[in-house]
Design brief:
Elements (H helix, E strand, L loop, with lengths): L1 H18 L4 H15 L5 H8 L46 E12 L3 E7 L8 E8 L4 E13 L2 E19 L5 E4 L15 E23 L3 E25 L3 E25 L5 E24 L5 E24 L5 E15 L2 H10 L7 E15 L1
Antiparallel strand pairs: 1-4, 1-13, 2-3, 2-6, 4-5, 5-7, 7-8, 8-9, 9-10, 10-11, 11-12, 12-13
Helix pairs in contact: 1-2
Length: 389
Amino acid sequence: MGTRNLLSGMLLAWGFCLTGGGAVTVAQETFDHVYRVADLDRDQGLVAAWSAGDSSDVQILSPGIDACAECTQCDSQGCDGCCATQECRSPWWAHRSGLFGEFLYLRPGDSDIVYSIEQNDTTVNAFPTGPLGIAAIDASPGYRVGFSLASSQTSSLVASYTHWDGNTQDRLVRNNANVLNSQIIHPSTFTTGGNSLQSSAATSIEFDLIDAVYRHKLICTDTTIFNWSGGFRYGTIEQSLLAQQEISVATGLVTVDTDVDFNGFGILLGCDAERRSCQSGMLCYSKGAASFLGGEWTGDYRQSNQFTGGIVANQYEDFRISPVWETELGIGWQSESGCVRATAGYMASWWCNAVSTREYVDGVRRGNYLEIDDTIAFIGLTTRLEVRY
C-alpha cells in the first residue's frame, strides 16, 4: 500500500500544480484506472520506472476506455497499426448495416443474330454477295439495389435485386438485283424469292436476379480482408425475336416470332477480397461468385404468312441446371468512419448451359432439339455507392 500511496500523492500534486486544484479529481480517477490495469502492487519494476521518470512501459488510458488488443475490436491495434488513434473503434473492414445502389452498363455476348443474307439469286447455287443482316444488342444500362444487416463485425446478411434489359432492331435492304435469304424462316417454306427486297429483325434480352447471402470474414491482415459468402439465388432471363421478310406476292410478308424464357432457383457461393490504404482511403477489390440455378428453359417459335402458306410452330421445354459465373475487379474509396463507400469496376458474367434465341432458332430449322446448348455472356462497367452505419 506504500507504493500506491506514494504514486497517488505524486499524481495529485502534479494535477494541483498544473491547474491549481482543478485537475485533482481527474488525476485521482486516472491513477485508479492505471493502477487497476497495470496492477502496480505486483509489478515493482513499473513503479521503479515511473519513479525514475521512464514511463515508456506504462500505458495510461483515459477512464472508461479499455485496451483494444484484438484485430476484431480496434482499428488502431492488430489490424491497422499505421492508423493508430487514441480511441477504440471498428476496423475499416468491419461488416456494417446499410443500403447500396449500383449502376450497371453491360453488353450481352454470344447473342448476335444473323437474320438475313444477301445473295445473287434465288437458286440453290446462289452465292453471298456481302451484306449481312445482324441484330446485335449494344451496351445498355441496368441496376442493382440492396441492403446489408451486420450481425457482428465479422459477419452480415446481404440481400439484393438486379435488373438489366437491352434491345435493338435492324433492317437490311438488297443492293442492285440481288435478293435476301432469311436465316430465320423455316426451310420447309421458301426462305427467299423474287420479292425478297428487304428484311428486318428486332430482338431483346432481359434478366432479373434476387440474392440472399450470408457473408463472413475469412482472413484479415492490417490492410487486406478476404470474405466468403453463401446463400440462395432466384434468376430469370427472357429473350424475344421478331423477324419479317417478304418472299413472294403469294405469301406476302412472312413473320417469325420467338420467345425463350428461363426461371430458376439455386445456391450461390462467392468470395471477395479487398486491400485499402489507411492514409488515403483508396482501395482495390475483386469479387467472384458462382450460382447453380435449376429450372425450366422454354421456347416458342411461330411463323405466319400474310396471305397463304399456313403456320409453322414449335414449343420447346427442358429442365436443366444452368451455372451462372460472375467476376468483378475495380477500385474505390471508403471514408475513415466507414459510413460512406464508393467503387467502380469492370464485371463479366456467364449464363452457361443456356438456351439462346439463335441456338433455339437453329434447332427448329434443323429439326434437332438435343444439341441446343449455349452460353450467354454479359460484360461491362459497374459503379456502386454504399451508405452504412
